[in-house]
Amino acid sequence: MIYCTNIAVILPIGLFKMFQLAKNKKSSVIIVRESDGTGGCICCSGGMGEFAKKDHSYGKIRKIAEECGRLHREITDRFRDEEVKIIQIEPRAYFYLMPKVLKDVLKFNSSILSTIRTIFFWYQVPVVIVNGKPIGTGRVPTIGEVIKELEHSKANSVN
Amino acid sequence: MTINAMPLVVGALCVMAIFYRYYHGFIAAKVVALDDSRKTPAYTMYDGQNYYPTSRWVLFGHHFAAITGAGPLIGPVLAAQFGVLPGYLWILVGVVLAGAVHDFIIFFASVRHGGKSLAEIARIQISPLSGIVASIAILFILVVALAGLGLVVVNALSESSWGTFTIACTIPIALFMGLYMYRFRRGRIAEGTIIGVILLILAVIFGKDIAHSSLATYFTFPKPKITLFILIYGFVASVLPVWMLLCPRDYLSSFMKIGTIAFLAIGIIIVHPELKMPHITEYIYGGGPIIPGSLFPFAFITIACGAISGFHSLVASGTSPKMVSKESDIRVIGFGAMLIEGFIAILALVAACSLFPGDYFAINVSPQVFETLGLNTVNLDQLSKEVGENLVGRTGGAVSLAVGMAQIFTSIPGMRHLMDYWYHFAIMFEALFILTTIDTGTRVARFMIQEFGGKIYKPFERVDHLPSAIISSALISCGWGYFVFTGSISTIWPMFGTANQLLAGIALCVGTTFIINIGKARYAWVTIIPMAFVMATTLSASWLNITDNFLPLAKRDGFAIQGYVNSLLTAVMMICAVIILIDSFRTWYKVVFVEKKEVRISKEEVVSE
Questions:
Q1: Is a pLDDT exceeding 70 seen at residue A38?
Q2: Shortest CA distance to B86 belongs to which of B346, B292, B276?
Q3: Which of the residues A104, A125, B441, B525 could staple to B187 if both were Cys, CB 3.0 to 4.6 A apart?
C-alpha cells in the first residue's frame, strides 16, 4: 500500500516538475566525454585519482578531454550563464543524464530520430548534446557548430 | 530473540537525516563557514578540462560512485560476529560523527587549497615531513588493502567452478568491450557496456552448466592456485594500457554497483527480513573465531569504509574539489555521499545478520574451528543445496554476504527458485569491484614505487619505461601477493582495517590543523574527537595485533617470517601515523599558543608606542 502511495504521489510531482522546468527556455549544452581517471577510491571500487594523470595510456582520452575543455571555454566566453547551461559529464552518469536529456527533448521539440538517439545513448562518445540533439558524435564539434545548433533549436522552439 | 530489519533501517535513516540537518549544518555554518561568494577552484583555476563548475547532483553522483563499492559491504559482514548492535551502532555513530565529517573537512580543505591532494595539504598545513610520511603511509596502506581485498576474492572463488568460471569470463568480456569501444566501434560506450552486461549475466547463467559438466574440473582450484592467478592478473593488468581492461571493467562495475545496491535496498524494504543474529554475542570480550580480539578496538577497525574510511580522503582531495561550483554544494556532496555509504553498510549488516548464527559462523570459519564453537547449523545444508556449492568454511565475508543477499532477493515474489543464480551474481558483483581495485591499486602503487625509485635512478620514474613498469609492478604484486599467500582473513582484515583507519586518522589530523590554521581553533573538537577515537582504536588495535597475534605467530614453527613481516608492516604504519600526529601537535601548539602570544605582544607594543 505504502509503495503504491509513494508512486501515486512522487511520480506526478516528478512529471509536473519536469514539465515546469521544460518551460524555462535556457539553452543546454551537455558535453559527454570519458574521464582520464577511473571512478573510485582504492578500498572500495578501484580508482587512481591524481595518479591517472601519470598514465600515458590515457593519452587519447586526455586529448579529447582537452578539446572538450577548449569547447567549454569557448562557450563560456561567448554566452552568459543565464543564456546557456553547460554540463560536462561522463557517459556512466546515466541516472543524471537520462532525465536531463528527456527534459531538453521536451523543451526544444527535437526531431524523433535525434530524440531516440539521445535517449538510448545511440551515439559515439565524445558527443555534445545541444538542446537535446546530439551533434558531432565521436568528435568534439567546433564552437561554430554549437552556435548554429543553438540558434536553430531556439528558432524551432519559438515556432 | 529476533528483530525485524525495518526499524533498524528506518531508524538509521532518521538519525542520518537529523544529524545532516543539525550537526552537519552546524559544521557547515560555524566551523568552516561555507561562503558562496568565494570562487571555487572550478572558477579560479577554470580550464574546462579538469577544473570546471559542475552541477551539484552530477558531482554528487560522481563522488558517491567513487567512494562506494566492496569496502562497506565486507566489513559489516565480518563484524557481525560481535552481534547486530555493535556493528549497527558503530556504523551509525561513526558515519555521522566521524566518516561524514572526515570526508567533508578534507573536501573543503582541498577546495580552499585549489583542489590539492591530501599529501599536498599535509605538506602545506603541517610540514614537508608530514607530506613525505603521508606518501609512504599511503604506499604501505595500499599494499595491505590489496591483500585484504584479494583474500576475499580468493576465499570466495576457491573450489567454486561456477564462481571461477564467471569471474574468469569477466576478463575476456572486458577485453572484448575494450576492443569494441576503443577499436571496432570507437566511442560506442553505451553499446559496449550493454553488450558487456548481457555477456556478464550470461556468464552467471551458463556458469551453472559448466559447474555440472566435465569442464568443472578446469575451473575448480584450491586457494593457492587462485591466489597465483589473481597475482598474475594484478601484475599484467597494471602494465596493460587502460583502455584494454581497466576502462571497460570500470564501466561494468559502475553499472553493476548502482543496480545491485539499489536492488538490495528495495529487496530489504520489500522483504524486511528478521535478523537471527543475537544483539550481542559472547565474542565482544575477545576470542572471536573470525576477528580475534575484543569489541574494543577490533569492531571499530573491522568496519572501516561504512563508518569512516581514510581512502575517501584521497577522493575528497582528488577530482571532486576541482569541479564543485559553490561552497554550499560541499555539504550535500561531502556529508551526503558518506551518509549513503553508511546506509549501504547497514544493508550489508542486515544481509549478514539475516542468517542463523550457526550458519553464519559455519560459513565464516574453518570446520575445525566451528566444531569448537558449540553451535549447530540450521539451514546450511539447505542453503548449500540451493546455491549448488559447499558453503562450509568459506571464510572472507564475501560468501556469507552473497548468501544473505541471495536469501533476500529470493524472498521477493517470483524469485524463489533463483537462489543459486542470485548467489553467484552476488559473488560476481563483489569480485568485479575487487578485481578493478586490484588492477588500479597495483597500478597506483607501481607509480609510487617508480616515483621513489626515480630519486635514485632517474629513468625509473618514467611511467612509460617498460623495465621500470615491470619491476615495480612485480614488486607490488609480490608484496600484496605474499600476504594473501601466507595470511588468513583473521590476520589480513584487521591489518586492512587498521591501515584504512590510520589513513583516516592522518586525514583528520590534517583537517584539524586546517581548522586551527583558519582561526577556528575553538571548533577544532569536531575533528579532534573523531581523530582521537580513530587514532586510539587503530593504534591500540595495531599494538594488540603485533603483541597478541603476529609476534606469537612468529614463534610458531614455519611462521617466523610471516609473523615478523606482519609486525614490521604494522609497526611502520603506526610510526607514520605517530610522526604525523606529533608533527601536527607541534603545528597546533605553534598556531594556538606561540603565534597568539606573538600577536598579543605586538599589539601591546603598538599600544605602548
A1: no
A2: B346
A3: A125
